[in-house]
Amino acid sequence: FLYFPETHGISFRIQITVKEQLETDVLLKLLFHLPVSYPSTVPDISVNSDQLTRAQCMDVKDKLLEQAKKHLSEPMVHDLILWIQQNLKDVIKQSATVCNEKTTLSKGTSTEDGIWMLLLHLDHMRSKAKYVKTVEKWASDLRLTGRLMFMGKIILILLQGDRSSIKDYLILQKTSKVDVDSSGKKCKEKMMSVLCETEVQSQHKRFQTFEVKEYSTLKELQKEFESAGLTALFSEFVPPLLK
């Protein structure tokens, strides 16, 4: 259970294991973002699970949001958790049926729909080892691939994955105490820039893993982008950082 207070509401993660009526245990990783207006408005919800497909996770999220709308103006997170524990089997069963129908209707369409890419620029890392470890854990938990790149004073994070996971990462990056300030006190990331957030195109290479890499020259960094089919992305956003 992680709790991140912030000026725009709070975000927290809950992991639950659903066993009842299922052939195998399903570990659900739920991320709730409660806006300041909660519970008058529904929370943002993200669902991830190693035991479920991306489509099933999206269906679980949609069903939770449907339930949330029935509980407006009253605290609802606990009720939502209880509901999905009791109804996960039915949601998965419905999801499989819909998935089969979609497969029949959309043969030949791209399987990359919904895969997005995010490029972030960080100004500095005072507690580098801790910061890097945290980014690696978030990428792993959210099943994101890409690179954390260091070149001189330039720090870039390039991520690829489900759009919902990309959004969840941004919430974590903005609301977590991920670094330390000049006095050594834990602090949030306040000097991060979102350089680009876009859907992955056919000419872009998909990263298979998330890696932390250091480059001694700008040319080396440029080659990393070029090998991933991201030459235009590099040209537009990276050179200006050197000025």
From TrEMBL:
**Which Pfam family, any one of them, does this sequence belong to?**
RWD
Q: Which residues cross the membrane?
A: none
Q: Where is this protein localized, as stated in its record?
A: Cytoplasm; Nucleus
Q: Where is the RWD domain?
A: 1-91
Name a single GO biological process: regulation of gene expression
Q: Which Gene Ontology cellular component annotation is one that this UniProt entry carries?
A: nucleus
Keywords associated with the record: Cytoplasm, Nucleus
| Entries under InterPro entries matching the protein | RWD_dom, RWDD3, UBQ-conjugating_enzyme/RWD
- What is the recorded function of this protein according to its Swiss-Prot or TrEMBL entry? Enhancer of SUMO conjugation. Increases SUMO conjugation to proteins by promoting the: binding of E1 and E2 enzymes, thioester linkage between SUMO and ube2i/ubc9 and transfer of SUMO to specific target proteins which include hif1a, pias, nfkbia, nr3c1 and top1. Has no effect on ubiquitination.
This chain belongs to the protein called RWD domain-containing protein 3
